[in-house]
Structure formats: C-alpha cells, structure tokens
Design a protein that fits this description.
The protein contains 16 helices and no strands. By secondary structure, the chain is mainly α. The protein is elongated.
C-alpha cells in the first residue's frame, strides 16, 4: 500500500487482498488496543471497509466506545458499507468525544442526506459550518437539499446561509445556482465576502479569477496592492499571476512584467507556469 496517491487497484486484486487480510487476522490478533485502532483506521483510509467490519467482529473484546479514532473509523466503514443507522450511532459518539473535529459532522450530513432525512442533515450541516464555514462537501449537500425543495429559491437560500456564516464557498455556490452564466454576479458575491474579511489563499485566488472572467481587470491590482502593501499579507504566486494577466489585458506591460517576476520568485511555482506567463507576455508585447 503506497497511500492515496497510488494507482487504484483492480477489483480482483482488492478482493484477493481483503480475503488475505481476513484469513491473516483469524490467527493474528493485535498486540494491544492502540494497534487495533491503528489497523481499523488505516484500513478505513484504504477503502477496506468490509475488512474493517470483519476485523472488529473477530476482535469483539476490543472496546470501541470512548475512543474517538475507533468510533470515527468504524462509523466511516459502516457508512461505506451502507449500514447507515449503525454508522450514525458511532459517528455521533465520535462527535461527542471530539466536538471540534470536522470529519464526524461531514459524515453525519452525508448519512442523513442519503437517508432523505433533510432536516437532520441540515442540523448537522449547520453545526459543521461552525467549524469550517467553507467546506465544499457540506455546501454541496445544503444546496442539494434546497434544490430538491424548490429549485427557484435554492440560490437565494444558499446565499442567505452563506452570508450568515461568512462563507465565501457558500457565496460562490449561490452565484452558480442563481445564474451560472452571470460572471459579474459571482464577482459581486465574492467581493462581498472579501469586504467581510475573507482572506484565505483559496478564496483570494478564486475571487481574483472571478474578477478576471468578469473583465473587471482594474480591480485585481488594487486588491493585490491592498493585501501586500497595506495589510502586509504574503501573496500566493497565483495572485501575482492573476495580477499580471489583468495588467496585460489593460496593456500595462511594465506592471505585468513586475508581477511575473514576483511570481517567479516563489519557490512553489512550477517552472512551466513561469514559462507560460512569460510567453503570454512576450506575445502580447510583440502584438502591440
């Protein structure tokens, strides 16, 4: 097993590996409770939910209750095996043991939505947003609940909830629901989030990209100046790239080149991106 970045195994290989593990666990018990929890947690992350359930049954003397990691792993595996009622019981225990951990909330939202218990799903979604107001999975389910109830009002309902939670992810989704073709609307909604204080890198990248798509190029350098010079915020290289593209759209080549150079100084920017930015700059200059 090489982690989540490894190529997906075929069903045949996965079944064979699962059978091997089950046979192995019949004769090899975990040395202690910590090892037991480590194993069910790792197997859950590997997607071996059916093996987890049999492993827990084989080691029935090992306690689950009172251990956050055990409750979360077993609840998640039960969810993957569509044992939703039982999964919810363990996930509720996990939530009670670690109220600030996000994972139990997200799984509970998914479970109750799948069970068509929309009121309960929304209850857990609201609680999840108090921990992570920009969780995209939670917002997708919230939007789905509103869409099933009334597609015509879903966008405005998502917008209202996003405003209440100061969520840029919710505002972005609301704009898509209200009118996916209105690029100005999305830029406006994200601008409201910016004015409310959102400053996460992911948000700023999405916001400046939305401004570019809305052809509000002049706003992008203004935002970068405010962030870098006035708020003293270190800027992600993608923001410099968006700024350079905005300057090029306004035929301000010197300013664009300055931002390309700033982006290039980032240790995280891929060399291909630097080359692409410079190529666009050179092409634009030559076209003048």
């Amino acid at each position: 097993y090489r982690g989540e970045h490894a190529p997906a195994a075929s069903k045949e290989k996965l079944d064979a590996f699962s059978s091997y593990l089950i046979d192995y666990f019949q004769d090899h018990k975990p040395e202690n409770h910590g090892q037991f929890v480590d194993l069910i947690e790792e197997m859950t992350s590997m997607g071996l939910s059916a093996v987890v359930l049999q492993f827990v049954e084989i080691n029935a003397s090992q306690p689950i209750e009172g251990d956050f990691r055990a409750c979360l792993a077993l609840g998640s595996s039960l969810m993957l095996e569509s044992e939703l009622d039982e999964a919810a019981l363990f996930l509720r225990q996990a939530q009670g043991l670690a109220p600030m951990e996000l994972a139990p909330y997200i799984n509970l939202v998914s479970i109750y939505f799948a069970m068509e218990q929309d009121e309960e799903a929304m209850h857990w979604a609201d609680r999840a947003l108090t921990i992570d107001a920009n969780n995209e999975k939670v917002w997708e389910i919230i939007a789905s609940i509103y869409m099933y109830a009334d597609p015509k009002t879903a966008g405005e309902k998502v917008r209202a909830k996003a405003e209440a939670n100061l969520s840029y992810a919710g505002m972005s989704l609301a704009a898509e629901l209200i009118d996916p073709n209105d690029r100005l609307l999305k830029a406006q909604f994200l601008g409201d989030a910016f004015d409310s204080g959102s400053r996460e890198d992911d948000f700023l990248i999405e916001y400046t990209a939305a401004l570019g798509l809305a052809e509000q190029f002049e706003k992008i350098p203004q935002i970068l100046f405010r962030l870098e010079k006035m708020e003293k915020k270190p800027l992600h290289w993608k923001l410099f790239a968006h700024g350079a593209q905005a300057y090029l759209a306004m035929n301000k080549h010197d300013e664009a080149q300055e931002l390309i150079q700033k982006a290039a100084r980032s240790p995280h920017i891929p060399a291909a991106i630097i080359a692409d930015l410079q190529r666009v700059y050179d092409s634009d200059v030559q076209a003048q």
